[in-house]
Write a structure and sequence with these properties.
The structure is a homodimer of 127-residue chains. The first copy, chain A, is mostly helical and 127 residues long. In chain A, 68% of the residues lie in helices and 11% in strands. Chain A binds a DNA duplex (20 and 20 nucleotides) through α5.
DNA sequence: CTGAATCCGCGGGGATACTG
DNA sequence: CAGTATCCCCGCGGATTCAG
């Protein structure tokens, strides 16, 4: 199983362990609510900071910048600054970002599909 | 786009809004690092609490219980208690859980595939 | 408009101890 | 072994301010 190797750090070899720890780090970075919502919001579009702020409901100024920096650092979004006044900054998913979006979309679909199941489960759990 | 409706709460109709807010809630619950790692660890296997604790590296006792409760509440994992002594509790992914695992697996694959890209991006960002 | 920096409160989350 | 409860602290994350 590919994921076992990815996530569990078999102590075979120094390089493998490095890659593995890096992978876990990336995983921790990206597997968070805001990152997902941002990726989803971007989709195939290019959006400005302020537009993202509106689209990603409930995100604070700070969290948005923070996550955008993180995504940029990992090469998931590209940040393009237009040196106008007032400044205009646009964010776009890179190819790796697009690839991950497929996963996020999958999760959105999943949520839709199982909304009913989940509501039921919650009712049952309430007891 | 299905996800837009899912994540942005179009104010059409009361039921739609309810479903949407629920969806966002679920999304917030599940889109977190520990939940993903737990789902990944469970895979097709059934694991005991202590086994999970070992497999999901770095998770604390508290976080594990907390996330397991959450996943159980949402019907993603089934919790089976064997009334023996000492007690034995086993966790298994339900069908919805399995379905979501496909997504999580996708993300693991993605991480593998783009490890190189990401390392490069980080180096570039360092400047 | 974008974003860095600062302040600060609250809660996430670890450690520990205790029950069944 | 599994789970709950308590304590406590650090850091997330919101609000605000200042800069470019």
């Amino acid at each position: 199983m590919v994921t076992k190797q990815l996530l569990k750090g078999l102590p075979e070899d120094a390089d493998l362990r490095r890659a593995d720890s890096l992978a876990r780090e990336i995983f921790s970075d990206v597997a968070n609510k805001w990152a997902f919502l941002i990726i989803e919001a971007l989709g195939e579009r290019t959006l400005r900071f302020s537009e993202l702020r509106k689209d990603v409901e409930g995100v604070s100024h700070k969290m948005l910048t923070q996550n955008l920096r993180m995504l940029e650092r990992n090469g998931l979004v590209e940040r393009k600054v237009h040196p106008t006044v007032p400044p205009r900054v646009e964010y776009t998913l890179t190819e790796p970002g697009q690839a991950l979006r497929a996963t996020v979309d999958g999760m959105c679909g999943w949520t839709h599909q199982y909304l009913g199941h989940i509501e039921d489960a919650r009712r049952r759990f309430g007891a």
